[in-house]
Protein: Renal dipeptidase
Organism: Bacillus aerolatus
Amino acid sequence: MNKNVDLNLTNLPKELKLILEIIKIENDDRISKDWFDDTDWDLFLQLALHHRLYPLLYSKIVKMENSWFPSEVLQSLSYYYRKNTFQMLHLCGEMEKLSQLFMENNIHPLFLKGPILAADFYGDISKRTCGDLDILIPIDDLQKANELLVDLGYEKDEYIQTLLNDWKWRHHHFTYYHPIQGTKIEIHWRLNPAPGKEPTFNELWRRKRKSSITSYPTYFMGPEDLFFFLVTHGARHGWSRLRWLVDIHQIVKKDLNWSALNKQLKRYQSCHIGGQSLILSEQLLKTVLIKEMQPLTRGNRPKKLAQEAIFYSERIVNLHTDPVPKDVAKYHSLHLFSLMSFQQKFLYMLSVLHPYYTDAETLPLPTKLHFLYFPLRPILWVWRKTRKQALS
């Protein structure tokens, strides 16, 4: 344990602390009956579902003395566990089909999460949830991938509104949905949106691994690249679902090359984010931090960011479910800014000067005159703000 770090966990719900205690159980460990006094079991189940921890939680409970759990809670967890297992089996089949389809059409797919991650981290695809398949491909193959998915019956969610091709860096994936199968797919051309720095696709593909859970080859990232992706992804979402943090707890048990990983995080200005994830994992899940990890957790910044992230665990935060409460949205916006390096903050401030699609909505111009949105942007921004205040 890092004796120099002691996060304030006072306001975490008792029910969430109980869930984490169960998750931490190894072998014949037991939990004190005191944990079960005055438990709000409705909240317990709600938190297990929200944090997507119910499959792992249920697999732990069935192996321990569970007479203290209400029967309806056990039945609910069992139902969701079985439902998730069927979902993961379905996604395994779809993952193999898409891998073969893309490879036969000269598209190299890297599967970012999903069943591959469950098998690699937990040794069992039923112990981790997955709502969709995230696939990283080269940006030049997006059009070809779109045509292949449409031919399979997938429909693209055209929610991205773009101006002057800003989608290439303001966003990082397109979403597809199969109306009959109910399968959702995200096709990534970046791991994260700008201004974050990250390895190129060719670098990631060179260090790829092959999964053993499908008969046709399916590929995913090397362990160090996967750690980088998981910590930047989790941090960007405020670790608002603790499933992502349990993934960190699992991956650090692997034989990672920490020397190479420290260099990689430094190269992409993410050492403080790696440190944040390790501190959170150690404090909430008692992850053992070996000396090779210590450089990432040193200093005040990783601890400060870790403490800021506790905000999301003290309440149930759904960042992708509108409307996001104003206080949460404001906090999250500030937290995202605090995660950026100095260079990333500078690039972000420059990106604000780049025209947005809202500028085209405010003042429609012919395509050949779109360059005028650069000098017009401050005027259009003031106009929108003034009009909004007037309407209020």
Notes: Strands lie at 110-111, 133-136, 155-157, 173-177, 184-188, 209-210, 219-220.
